[in-house]
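Practice problem: predict the structure.
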Amino acid sequence: MSAIRLLVLGAVRQHGRAHGYQVRGDLEYWGAHEWSNAKPGSIYHALRQLTKQGMLHEHETAPSTAGGPPRTEYEITEAGTGEYFRLLREALTSYDQRTDVKSAAIGFMVDLPRAEAVTLLKERIRRIEEWRSTVTGHYVPEGGPEQLGHIGEIMNLWVHTADAEAEWTRGLIGRVEGGAYTFAGEGEPFVGVLAEGEENPYATGERHPGDDR
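Answer:
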């Protein structure tokens, strides 16, 4: 799965309608340009591709009061909403996702009902434990990974990473079950996007041709 697809759909959905530069601003505000492939070119390319695939709908707006060409605003479609939630659920449960995909899923998990988020996270732990059992059963010799020479440290790294992620996920489940955060249907959600005209303290400042479209 590509993190940029989930990130762009989620960012547009949070606004209702948003132009490309707003989407870029939100992703930079979240630091996604540091932990994912959400660079300007990738963001604008994803917006165009998702529009071609019927996941987003384009609206051409009037020129801004400051002048310049009209911007294109994007709105998520019914198909795009379905794709967004499919990607979100898959990313929350699948252990073999890349770190940027996992991070995007955690950032959007509150779009789900609380009980469903807990169920998905518990499924994630089950899959981690299943992966660990399968891998250690085949590749870790009885004498320990040292029996494989320094190559055994690769398996050590994988297993320790899986154990750490399972432990962190259990902690997250505990916090969510304890009432942390505002999930879908519970009231006013946390506002994690920039208001129109609000300065972005985390903006890269890098100009891109797509910023003016």
